[in-house]
Amino acid sequence: MRVGFFQYAVIWRDIQANLDYIATKVKNETFDLLVLPEFFTTGYAMDTKEEILPFVEDLNNSTTVQFLARLLAETGNGMISGTIPEIEGGILYNTSILVCAEGLVASYRKIHLPDYEKRIFHPGDTAIVYQSSQAKIGLTICFDCWFAQHTAMLKRQEVEVICHSSCFGGPVTPTIIPIRALENQCFYISCNRIGEEYFEGELESYRGESQIANPDGKVIAKATNTESLTLIDIDLNEVNHPDFGRLITKDFQSEHNKYTINL
Q1: What is the CATH number for 221?
Q2: 49 is catalytic
Q3: Does 167 qualify as catalytic in the annotation?
Q4: Catalytic pick from 117, 136, 142, 163?
Q5: pLDDT one-digit tens code per residue, 51-95
Q6: Could you report the per-residue pLDDT of 10-49, keeping only the tens digit for each?
Q7: In terms of pTM, does the model score above 0.85?
Q8: Would you call 27 a catalytic residue per the annotation?
Q9: Is residue 262 part of a domain?
């Protein structure tokens, strides 16, 4: 399975410009699954609800979903995942989408919101795994990875590949990703962005360092702090079959299933 991430400096509050930029970068590439950053159509900084309202999307009539579906159909590629601001019934969500050439196949509303987002967005309440023709794919967003329980809920649904769209600047999150991959015996694709934005008048930088970790907790691809379109081939037979010690267990899934995990 060919997977990867596109780490770049999201264009602030210009949905079409971001979509067009993504298209120019991936049109000659081949992939089964590509992960984009959190809020890849708008940028992350939003100090008030009024600022983000012009850019929120209804998933039943989403410009972003329609554009990505066309792009995938034209290029013959598999799926793209990323995060957009969603609105439903007047309520705003930070939502991860999974799109194929036929359209939207799965969406996930961010469960773990940092305080900055709680002022505007409502948390989700359901862990999402989608069964594609190749793999069981889980969706997570940024701060979610700090909570082992959330990833464990994906594991109970037998997740094989986790998509993680992010916007962060600190050093902690990149250290967590390999641990989540290891403890859940799955592949983990984390896509952060680069560049800068103003938060309440203060200029902040994004770290980049997008990465792909394998089920042994090894980072098998990692970006620096510059733009990077990274694609690699992974072997799904590695899921649940650790190299670090065959005597530990032959079936990680049954061990995870011993626990009942609720929100």
Answers
A1: 3.60.110.10
A2: no
A3: no
A4: 142
A5: 999 999 999 999 999 999 999 999 999 999 999 999 999 999 999
A6: 999 999 999 999 999 999 999 999 999 999 999 999 989 9
A7: yes
A8: no
A9: no
